[in-house]
Amino acid sequence: MSNLFGVETNMRGVPLWSAGAAWNISSERLYHWDWMGFMRLKLTYGYNGNVDKSLSSLTAVAMATRNILIPNLPYALITNPPNPDLRWERIGITNLALDFESKNARVGGSIEYYHKKGKDLIGESPVPLSNGILTYTGNFSETKTNGLDLMLTTVNTGGAIKWTTIAMASFIDEEVVSFKGARTVSQYLGSSGGGLVPREGSPLFAIYSYKWGGLDPDTGSALGYLDGELSDDYGKIVGATQPEDLILHGAARPTYFGALRNELSFKNWNLSVNVTYRAGYYFRRRSVNYRDLLTGVISHPDYADRWQQPGDELNTQIPAMPEVLNTSRDSFYQFSSVLVEKGDHVRLQDVRLSYTLCRDYFPKLPFQSMELYGYANNLGIIWKATNIDLDPDYPTSRPLRSIAFGLRVGF
Description:
With 411 residues, the chain is mostly beta strands. The chain has helices spanning 185-190, 234-240, 290-293, 327-334, and strands spanning 18-24, 38-50, 60-64, 75-80, 89-101, 107-126, 135-157, 161-179, 206-209, 224-226, 229-231, 247-251, 256-266, 269-279, 282-284, 340-342, 345-358, 369-384, 402-410. The strands form five sheets. The protein has an eleven-stranded antiparallel β-sheet with strand order 1-2-5-6-7-8-13-14-17-18-19, with no helix packed on it. The protein has a two-stranded antiparallel sheet with strand order 3-4.
């Protein structure tokens, strides 16, 4: 037990513990699956804890001397408001796993389910400016996470050519159960960059957007919804939108992911090919920004496919160029649902080829072994759900591919 806060509710210790048990099913007399030589069931449960050492339950101030109104007059800033109820974050974790392996060791793997319950999680919430501070940090939220991890290894061939396959698959479902703080529409919209903006009933990391109403067939302007009606009054649309009016597309991080690795070996040669996949998530792509364009910055090639004349709205969703600068128009378009894409994809992640020399086969070698290898990473996407010409994992830049060659010597 430990406690770094030490005020009121925190005078009590914080019990952090875990316990586990395992059952070797295959060792039981009633076990008759001779083809499955090993099977074990494991169960663990416990609580982990976390504390933000930058916080305190007592008021903390920082002295400063740079005073705009009265030069050199020292003053103090509140860096940590009083919070006698500040306490540890606690994460309750339950794990249930099954390990197995066939009698001849040709097939093996594991299945694991886990459940996490986050309590008293620390976060920030805005407060009225009359308090003298902008945000207040405290234990505001609870979360729950359910996940499933699968791994399967198979030895497909033996002998001179050995072929092994390793398959991994994972599923995760994260949800904010409760959150006592408040967030603004702009914060929810900005969360698509990967930021954590909690909202009850939503994933921890989520994509939100304005509802898209298409293009005006006469002007090519983007249309949104104001009081349930199509509108191009962007100032009012942005100003009237509440968090509950935003579209929740789903998680901003993959909820399904995994890999399939195949390894081949023949004599001194070894080859491995790894294919990965990520699914069940969304991302926001970029498009033309007329505010940048009108100030001389060519920001995106979507400009070439913009609406230019009546009828173009049937073939494009890129607004026409405005006659005058309208930042609210750009903001609405950049955060509209039309620019949200599914991130599901399958990728050729890496390939490795090596040749090994060892003293067992070459007695005159001056060292125990030598491996020559070549490695290529992030080779490209095999399939993706979106038709947009970009990588879902790199929506704002081009992915970097790498090729390496090396020599490894063992003495």
